[in-house]
UniProtKB/TrEMBL annotation:
Protein known as: ABC transporter substrate-binding protein
The entry's keywords: Signal
GO molecular function: hydrolase activity, acting on ester bonds
Gene3D superfamilies in alphabetical order: SGNH hydrolase
The UniProt record lists the keyword Signal: yes
Length: 295
């Protein structure tokens, strides 16, 4: 009997390793998923969006996406999407690329002064004629001047703002974009236009600053470089993570990109920005992430 018990003691650990996963007691950490397929992405917009172009490639590389291509970036300061549509053909990289079927993804950044913007539909329908699998990502930015109808005059005024004050104008912008996106998708017969809730993520970051939870940032004004609302690096990084998360429908949480070796605050801040971005996108009504999870 002693000999049998000794043999069981020797073989039991190996036996358990085989049996426990099959019985549902495996380690609950998910297996590392293969990186998503790289996309050919054209960036198009104003200064609240154009910085996504170089950042997107770095994030994709950090995620192990080998075949990501940022095809180009078309920028007009303070622009509506219609201003991009109206560019002469010889200067219009977006129209040329859509006609050639050169993009898998087109990003657009509407201005809150023109919602709905008819050029969102025009670009989408032009693209679908030449690439039926095109996806269009419309960035819902944060509010210029904190409120386009009641603009601040000094960046420091942001430090007195509460989330209750900031949310209403952002909601008007969001609901307007979502309404137009649904109408375009109905005409297309499928979801082609998606919303990147960057403004929601910026609002969440400002809430954490107000609560004193953001490493190295104590004031809301430290996220911006002017009253208009142009973002400093933490904010632009957050928005870039939002666009990555929406386009690739995967979380950026845990990526080491943009971290500084030996700087613990920088590591914590980077992780927080990733978590805020993923929460905003994964909960976004029209980001496409929830629909993708349901498949």
């Amino acid at each position: 009997m002693a000999a049998i018990l000794n043999r069981l003691r020797f073989f039991l650990p190996a036996l358990l390793c085989l049996l426990l996963p099959a019985m549902g007691f495996a380690d609950d950490k998910p297996a590392s998923a293969a990186p998503p397929k790289g996309q050919r992405v054209q960036i198009c917009g104003h200064s609240f969006h154009i910085f996504v172009a170089p950042a997107l490639g770095k994030i994709a590389e950090s995620a192990g996406i080998k075949d990501h291509v940022t095809v180009g970036a078309q920028m007009i300061g303070g622009s509506t999407v219609t201003q991009h549509w109206d560019l002469p053909d010889d200067k219009n990289k977006v129209k040329t690329g859509l006609t050639a079927g050169a993009f898998d993804v087109l990003t657009l950044a509407p201005h809150m002064k023109l919602v709905p913007d008819p050029a969102i539909e025009a670009f989408t329908m032009l693209g679908l004629k030449h690439n039926p699998n095109l996806r269009v990502y419309v960035q819902q930015s944060w509010m210029a001047f904190d409120d386009w109808s009641k603009p601040i005059k000094d960046n420091k005024e942001r430090d007195q703002k509460t989330i209750d004050i900031l949310r209403p104008p952002l909601e008007v912008f969001r609901t307007g974009l979502e309404k137009q996106a649904k109408e375009i998708n109905a005409k297309a017969g499928k979801q082609v236009v998606f919303i990147v809730p960057a403004g929601e993520a910026v609002l969440a970051l400002r809430a954490k600053v107000i609560a004193g939870e953001v490493p190295g940032i104590t004031k809301q004004s430290e996220l911006f470089r002017d009253p208009i609302g142009h973002g400093l690096e933490p904010l632009t990084r957050l928005v870039s993570y939002c666009n990555y998360a929406a386009i690739y429908r995967t979380s950026p949480v845990g990526l080491k990109v943009f971290e500084k070796d030996g700087d613990e605050n920088a590591r914590k801040l980077n992780r927080m920005l990733q978590e805020i971005a993923w929460k905003a996108v994964s909960e976004g009504a029209m980001s496409g992430v929830e629909a993708d999870k349901a498949k």
